[in-house]
Specification:
The chain is mainly beta. It contains two helices and 35 strands. The chain folds into three domains: 58 residues; 292 residues, YVTN repeat-like/Quinoprotein amine dehydrogenase (Methylamine Dehydrogenase, Chain H, 7 Propeller); 72 residues, OB fold (Dihydrolipoamide Acetyltransferase, E2P), CATH 2.40.50. Helix content is 14%, strand content 46%. The strands form eight sheets. Strands 30, 31, 32, 33, 34 and 35 form a six-stranded mixed beta sheet that branches.
């Protein structure tokens, strides 16, 4: 007969066995879950590693470059209009392309050129020797002499008034007759890269600030902003590139900041809805008007040292000496982000000899033909040029290259046009000496 004590003991043993089995089952389940998790992590790690290897083989996603022109030295100068793209580099080479990338003309200036600008019909290049050259003829002609020995980092021109930013933290403004209207220099600014001008005045950016002046040289406003390396303007705002891109109203209020590190260049769509910044890692970033990053793509041809946006295309010049046209339309960006873009072959720019930099040589002619006749006259201690052809104001002088003026000499030029603000003429095109 089984006693009560024995029955209780038997039940306890059975309960313990059931509990032990449950613990064992839980342990097996836990081990299975852990093993599955480890396997899942291993699979994920392998996938990440495989993706990293694939990305390394493929490289960063490339922007869609529709064409590019390759030169032999760092390129900073860029200007694009409705028909042509201009670029200049540290060798003093200037190349002009149509908007399909075909070279139409090449010139040379005597020293490094880091900026090209336009004023009405005229195109100018600033150089390391402090001279500004007119590029509208077949040969570059020096038309402005700024502070000798100063390296012109950037410049702008408004109705013949030249605004220059230099490597010593200075801003200088000259009238069309090369007379310095005013100059500003801040010893706290190690350099001035940004200078833009409009009807209200001049906007400048340097190593420590962005500021504005009126046309008399008086300060309008100043904001602290470190490391400005480039700047652009729209009708209503100015944008400075450095640590990212920052936009300001033309009265000095902050509009937007696009976060980034070390941007040597920027560009903006006319309505401010797209803001571009180029970095030192050979990439271009695009932000919206609120400063939110939209995309990042590699150029495939170097870091953009200067850039300009026009009609859906971002034109850049790079530290590899390349002028390139990047298609930044929505369709092209989608194609690039899908990894479908391949690098286009670049055309080589023609090599220019040192002899091409002779800006004082003049071809001669014995007839005026369809040209305009000019004469160089002594006016006190200065040599000035006036128009002899009929139909022009005889008391107006002509903006004319200083280094080819010679008292009593006569010249035949392609065209002479009245400056927008009146009071003087400007030569357009080629200059020849008249042999009588």
């Amino acid at each position: 007969m089984v006693t009560k004590r024995a029955a209780v003991k038997k039940a306890a043993v059975k309960k313990a066995a059931v509990k032990k089995a449950a613990v064992k089952k839980a342990a097996v389940k836990t081990a299975a879950v852990k093993k599955a998790a480890v396997k899942k992590a291993a699979v994920k790690k392998a996938a990440v590693k495989k993706a990293a290897k694939r990305a390394a083989r493929r490289g960063p996603l490339l922007a869609k470059v529709t064409w590019k022109l390759e030169t032999s030295n760092d390129a900073f100068g860029i200007f694009v209009n409705a028909e042509q793209a201009w670029m200049s580099n540290d060798s003093g080479d200037v190349h002009v392309c149509n908007l399909r990338g075909e070279v139409q003309r090449s010139l040379k200036v005597p020293s490094s050129s880091r900026c090209i600008i336009a004023d009405e019909h005229w195109i100018y290049a600033g150089t390391q020797e402090g001279l500004v050259y007119d590029l509208t003829g077949d040969v570059a002609r020096a038309v402005y002499q700024v502070a000798p020995g100063s390296d012109i980092l950037w410049m702008d021109i408004y109705q013949g008034n030249l605004c220059v930013a230099d490597d010593a933290g200075g801003i200088s403004v000259y009238d069309p007759g090369e007379v310095q209207l005013w100059t500003f220099r801040d010893t706290d600014e190690s350099s001035m890269w940004m200078v833009r001008a409009d009807g209200a005045g001049v906007y400048a950016g340097g190593s420590k600030s962005v500021r504005a002046f009126d046309w008399g040289g008086a300060s309008r406003w100043k904001v602290k902003h470190r490391g400005v390396l480039f700047g652009v303007q729209t009708a209503d705002a100015v944008y400075a590139a450095g640590d990212g891109v920052t936009g300001f109203t033309k009265t000095g209020e902050k509009l937007v900041h696009c976060d980034g590190r070390g941007f040597p260049s920027c560009a903006v769509s006319p309505d401010g809805s797209r803001i571009f910044g180029g970095d030192w890692n050979e990439q271009v970033h695009c932000y919206d008007e609120k400063g939110e990053l939209q995309w990042t793509l590699a150029t495939g041809c170097g870091s953009a040292l200067s850039m300009q946006f026009r009609d859906g295309v971002l034109y850049i010049v790079t530290d590899e000496g390349t002028l390139a046209a990047l298609d930044v339309s929505p369709a092209a960006i989608a194609e690039a982000q899908a990894g479908a873009v391949t690098q286009v072959a670049g055309a080589k720019a023609p090599k220019l000899s040192a002899a091409a930099a002779d800006t004082t040589h003049l071809e001669s002619t014995r007839t005026v033909g369809d040209g305009v006749l000019l004469e160089c006259v002594k006016d006190g201690s200065k040599l000035r040029v006036r128009v002899l052809s009929e139909g022009y104001k005889r008391d107006w002088f002509v903006q004319f290259p200083r280094d080819i003026r010679k008292a009593g000499a006569k010249y035949v030029v392609d065209k002479v046009l009245e400056a927008t603000q009146g009071g003087f003429y400007r030569v357009l095109g080629n200059i020849r000496s008249l042999e009588e």
